[in-house]
Amino acid sequence: MIPEDSISYSYIQKVDESHLDNLMHVNNVVYLQWVNDISEKHWNILAGEELKTRYFWVVLRHELDYFKEAKLDDELTISTWVGQSKGVKSVRHVEIHKKDTLLLKAASTWCLIDSTTQRPTRIKNDILRILEPRK
User: Which of 24, 45, 73, 97 is the most buried (most CB within 10 A)?
Assistant: First the structure.
């Protein structure tokens, strides 16, 4: 469940034939792609051009928990928000729902990279301001 004080982002995804596996359910790889896609979209909404030029994120770990399947023509709500950000790492959460039913819960650990040095860099206040929940 999205924390009330988080800076979240959601969109609707309709399941089409290209998303299905041989069991006629959404393929696990597609879910992972959606987790990655919403993460990138949310960062692009939050960050201005200067931050996007100075930094980029690489994923270190994805944890996905599958609860129910999605099928052709289902309308899914994909939501994300950022959890703890500390040092060079930030944890991003994603949930996928069909109406009120939770289908997938994911937590991904991302590492902030300095575009100039191509090395991990500490997450400073300029980024924390846009990632941290509003008080």
Answer: 97
CATH of domain 9-131: 3.10.129.10
CA atoms in the 13 A half-sphere facing the CB of 25: 11
0.85 exceeded by pTM: yes
**Mean pLDDT, to the nearest integer, of 68-75?**
98
101-114 vs 55-66, strand pairing mode? antiparallel
